[in-house]
Write a structure and sequence with these properties.
This protein has one helix at residues 78-105; strands at residues 3-8, 15-22, 26-30, 38-41, 47-48, 51-53, 57-62, 65-73. The chain has 106 residues and is an alpha+beta fold. The strands form 2 sheets. The protein has a 5-stranded antiparallel sheet, with no helix packed on it. A hairpin with a 6-residue loop joins strand 1 (3-8) and strand 2. The radius of gyration is 22 Å and the shape is rod-shaped. The termini are far apart.
């Protein structure tokens, strides 16, 4: 089983893109620490959580022939942190507007 992998440089620490040429269906293994926020994304829009390989690396299945896959990392807590920050800002603005309105009335 012979294959080739081409790493396409992406200007982002949270993205990696690879093109594989394989004679059979295979697993693309990337020497990057597996973390819950990584996703494998294929050109057709299909997403999957990478497999944990050898206890710490990431891997995704690739088809025979030419395949392209992009790894995208989004920290798990980022969405919750952004939501909490937006709620906090909204509450702060509403409290300030309420105090400003009561100040203007008096």
């Amino acid at each position: 089983n012979h294959g080739q992998v081409l790493w396409e440089r992406v200007r982002s620490p949270s993205r990696m893109r690879f093109v594989t040429h394989s004679s059979t269906s295979s697993i693309l293994v990337v020497r990057v620490t597996w973390l819950p926020g990584w996703k494998g994304v294929w050109p057709d829009g299909h997403c999957a959580t990478p497999l944990r390989v050898n206890g710490w690396m990431m891997g995704v299945p690739v088809r025979e022939g030419v395949s392209s896959v992009e790894f995208v990392y989004t920290p798990v807590g980022l969405r919750y942190a952004l939501f909490t920050a937006l709620v906090g800002i909204a509450l702060s603005v509403s409290l300030l507007l309420g105090r400003f309105r009561s100040f203007v009335r008096n």
